[in-house]
Design brief:
With 409 residues, the chain is of the alpha+beta class. It has 6 helices and 21 strands.
């Protein structure tokens, strides 16, 4: 009895061992475990060297499994960082690699993948959101109510453009370029744009800054601004030119000049001093008048607004009084209704090819002439004659058919 039990136990042990080996052979490679870590991880606001470490446990598979560590970069390019093979029933295989994001210097996702036998086992994503550098050499200068902005171009490869902000009121800064300016405002490393602020800006002083904009991903879905603005630039817009004014005829420079001119034109003598002003009117010789000059602090032409300041020197002209218009307006009465009087005499008109002479007459004569012209058509009369013949033939044919019908009955 004991011998039989021993034999049965040995048979059962052998069967169990064989079944375990068969189960291991049938176990798929995906049943093995893998791990992957990347440092630093998450979302980064600066370029860094990313270190990836992965391991693959093939202790449950009797098959050799190829293992690979790779990364897909923001520009959609891929790179194999490390690869090896995990032998049958091998407990683990370790893979490692590094990526320097400053080499590409493009915002977006770095996707690290540990794959076994061509199938992804683990995946880790690191997102790069690096803002652009601050705008350099930012400056602004006025020209009337137009501000001319200049700055140096940024060097980021995924640069989206620039944004100009009015920070005169620091509590409520105003975006001058919603959506930003494109990189097409730059050429040869320098950028520039002109903005007209309208007549309301005259006489005011405003402060501006610039921000650079960078895309957050290669798909250009959104942008990120530079962490700090450029150095501020202040623009002082010139005040509007004063309206031209005319001085009284008997005082100051104008009076003296006018008196001098009048005296010279009359007798070629010496111009007189006008009113109480201390400026000499000027002298004339041979009928030529010289305008008097003032040394008492007169107006000067501004270099920034010469055309506006020049208006102060031009004479002021006024139009004379309008003439008196007549108070009586001649009334034109209409002709009595039903009356007609020809104003132009035209000869009788004859239309070529027709026998009717059109003359001016009553409305009845005109209608009669039109009817004669319409009815005097040979084709119309021929058609009417043919229709009458057809009607007679039809009548005779009907009578003959009726007689034949009666005879048959």
């Amino acid at each position: 009895m004991k011998r039989a039990l021993g034999v049965a136990g040995r048979v059962a042990f052998g069967a169990g061992l064989t079944g375990g080996l068969l189960a291991l052979a049938a176990a798929p490679a995906s049943a093995a475990a893998g791990s992957l870590t990347v440092s630093p991880t998450g979302t980064l606001d600066h370029n860094a060297v990313l270190s990836a470490n992965g391991s693959y446990d093939n202790s449950t598979s009797p098959n050799t499994v190829p293992v690979q560590l790779s990364v897909v970069k923001p520009d959609s390019s891929s790179q194999v960082l490390d690869k090896t093979s995990a032998g049958p029933l091998q407990r683990s295989r370790t893979l490692a690699g590094t990526v320097d994001t400053s080499a590409l210097n493009v915002n977006g996702d770095y996707v690290f993948t540990l794959s076994a036998n061509g199938t992804a086992a683990k995946s880790v994503t690191v997102t790069l959101r690096v803002p652009p550098a601050a705008v350099g050499n930012f400056g602004a200068s006025p020209s009337g109510t137009v501000a001319h902005f200049t700055w140096s171009a940024n060097g980021e490869p995924d640069l989206a453009g620039y944004d100009l902000v009015d920070e005169t009121d620091s509590s409520q800064p105003r975006d001058l370029t919603p959506g930003g300016l494109g990189t097409n405002v730059c050429s040869g490393g320098s950028c520039g744009v002109d903005i007209d602020f309208g007549a309301g800006a005259a006489g005011t002083s405003r402060t501006f800054v610039a921000y650079a904009l960078r895309y957050t991903s290669a798909s250009h879905s959104s942008t990120i601004a530079s962490a700090s603005p450029s150095a501020p630039a202040t623009v002082a817009f010139a005040a509007p030119a004063p309206p031209p004014s005319s001085a009284p005829a008997g005082s100051g420079d104008t009076g003296g000049a006018a008196s001098g001119g009048s005296s010279g034109a009359a007798g070629g003598g010496t111009g007189s001093t006008g009113g109480s002003g201390s400026t000499s009117g000027g002298s004339t010789s041979g009928g030529t008048t010289a305008r008097g000059t003032s040394h008492g602090g007169g107006k000067s032409i501004s270099a920034s607004h010469p055309s506006a300041a020049l208006k102060a020197y031009l004479p002021t002209l006024s139009a004379g009084a309008a003439p008196n218009l007549p108070s009586v307006v001649t009334e034109i009465k209409p002709l009595p209704q039903g009356t007609y009087k020809p104003t132009l005499a035209y000869p009788d008109q004859v239309i070529p090819g027709e026998r009717v002479v059109h003359k001016r007459g009553t409305a009845i004569a005109s209608v009669r002439d039109d009817l004669v012209r319409v009815l005097d058509v040979s084709a119309l009369w021929k058609a009417l004659g043919a229709a009458a013949v057809l009607l007679l033939v039809a009548g005779h044919l009907r009578a003959w058919l009726e007689s034949v019908d009666l005879a048959d009955r």
